[in-house]
Structures are given as structure tokens and as C-alpha cells.
Automatic annotation (TrEMBL):
Gene3D superfamilies: HAD superfamily/HAD-like (3.40.50.1000), Putative phosphatase, domain 2 (1.10.150.240). This is Haloacid dehalogenase. InterPro entries: 2-HAD (IPR006328), HAD-like_sf (IPR036412), HAD-SF_hydro_IA (IPR006439), HAD_sf (IPR023214), PGP-like_dom2 (IPR023198), S-2-haloacid_dehalogenase (IPR051540). Keywords: Hydrolase. It comes from the Eukaryota.
Length: 259
């Protein structure tokens, strides 16, 4: 594994479309309200993870006795709570049974159209170790990879599923990217981190990976171009920008040839 290129694929918003949950929401509220609610649900889902990271009182220099426990909730709880928040903001209501059904539906979100052909091609790439790298719980991510109609047939492409549960914080905290490196048998050195790739459609994830020295391919399916301005300079930008997952492998190979 150490002599192969590790490519870590983000799950939600990269392989799986979080907007596809609108199909289930539409059975309760109609298509127009469903699309708006799906977007708000995703917004709060991400916001909750960032807020929990910010409230984490971890201080590297503090002793274990002096360091209080960090703020952490499993991603499944965050997803359910953010649904409730989105419903309240939208002045909508679902009973517990319906909300539970939606949570089960989250395990089988639809893939983006470019995912299946890209993973089929990736199966023949012997020099690449592909993994799923997600904020989700181990259970959520495993179920999604196996249950999603678009991912299930290609589940064997991924040699590992890496989640944030063990480190109990979320992207883009540096600890989660170093955790990925450890799980893949890499060190935390600058050289080791630079040999790993993140593939994500989420700008905050790309910026987080680049901040610790990883390479990152940003999936710009909308063709809007890179606009995130939080971190200026090359370290804040994706290594490469691709329009779809089918371009990732060639982009990685091309980058390596120019090193």
C-alpha cells in the first residue's frame, strides 16, 4: 500500500448527492419545498460540524487532567438534528416515523452521474489505492457504500473506509487528515502528506487537506470555478480542478509526471 498513490474520496457531496434526498422529501412536501428543504438540511448539517469543531477545547500543551472533553456528536445525530432545524426554519413538520424513514433513506442517496463510470475505470488502476474518507459514522458510511445503487456495484474499488469517529472531530480539522495518513500507513511528514490525494466537491474540505500539505482535486461539476478566498496563495487552492470524477486519475498522473 505504501508504494501506491492514495486517493481519498469524500462521500457526501462528492460521490453521493445530498440534494438527491429531495426525492424523499417531495413525498411529504412537494418538489418545490423539498428542494429548498434539502439545501437547508445540508447547510445545517455542515454548520453543526464546524460549530462543534470550534467548541472543541483541545489544547495540545495542556495535561490530560486540565483538558476538558471536546464537543463531539456522531454524524448520524448531527444529520437528524439538522433535519429538525431545517424543518423548524421552514415551518414544516414530520412525525418521528417519517423522520426515521428519511434517515434510512440517507443511507442510499443517489450518486452523481459521473461516479459509476469513473469507479469502473478506477478498478483497473493497479497503482492507486482508493479509499472513502468521510465525516460520517462508520455505520452510515458503510451502509451508504453498500446500499447506494450507484456505489454498491463498485464497493470493492475502495480498499478502506476512513471516518472521523476515532478522532472525534470533523473536517477541516487537521487531525482528521493526519488520521487518514495514519490509517493508510503514512507518516505525518510533509513528504508523506504531499503524496496523498483528496478528491472532494466541498471547498472547505479541499482547503483543509491543502493546509496540511495533501494534494487535492476539487470536483467543479457546476463549472463555476474556484472562488473560495479563505486562504490566499497556492496552499489554499486545489492542486487540480476537474469537471467530473472521470478526470481525476489522469489529473493525478499528470501532476506526478511534472514533479
Amino acid at each position: 500500500m505504501a508504494d501506491k498513490t492514495v486517493i481519498a474520496f469524500d462521500l457526501y457531496g462528492t460521490l453521493l448527492s445530498t440534494e438527491s434526498i429531495a426525492k424523499e422529501l417531495a413525498t411529504h412536501f412537494g418538489q418545490e419545498k423539498a428542494a429548498s428543504l434539502a439545501g437547508l438540511w445540508r447547510r445545517y448539517q455542515l454548520e453543526y460540524t464546524w460549530r462543534l469543531n470550534s467548541m472543541n477545547p483541545f489544547i495540545a500543551s495542556a495535561s490530560p487532567v486540565d483538558s476538558p472533553e471536546g464537543q463531539f456528536q456522531p454524524f448520524s445525530d448531527i444529520t437528524r438534528n439538522s433535519l429538525d432545524h431545517a424543518l423548524t426554519d421552514s415551518k414544516l413538520f414530520l412525525d418521528d416515523e417519517s423522520s426515521g424513514h428519511l434517515m434510512k433513506a440517507y443511507d442510499s442517496l443517489s450518486t452523481f452521474p459521473d461516479v459509476s463510470p469513473a469507479l469502473k475505470a478506477l478498478a483497473d488502476e493497479r497503482a492507486i489505492t482508493a479509499v472513502v474518507f468521510s465525516n460520517g459514522t462508520n455505520s452510515m458510511v458503510t451502509n451508504s457504500v453498500k446500499s447506494s445503487p450507484g456505489l454498491g456495484p463498485h464497493a470493492d474499488v475502495f480498499k478502506e473506509i476512513v471516518t472521523v469517529e476515532e478522532v472525534q472531530c470533523f473536517k477541516p480539522d487537521p487531525k482528521v487528515y493526519y488520521h487518514l495518513a495514519e490509517k493508510m500507513g503514512k507518516g505525518k511528514s510533509k513528504q508523506a502528506m504531499s503524496e496523498m490525494w483528496l478528491v472532494s466537491g466541498n471547498p472547505f474540505d479541499v482547503v483543509g487537506a491543502r493546509a496540511v500539505g495533501m494534494q487535492a482535486a476539487w470536483v467543479d461539476r457546476g463549472g463555476a470555478g474556484w472562488t473560495d478566498g479563505l486562504v490566499r496563495g497556492e496552499t489554499g487552492k486545489p492542486t487540480v480542478v476537474v469537471k467530473g470524477l472521470g478526470e481525476v486519475v489522469e489529473a493525478v498522473k499528470k501532476h506526478r509526471r511534472f514533479l
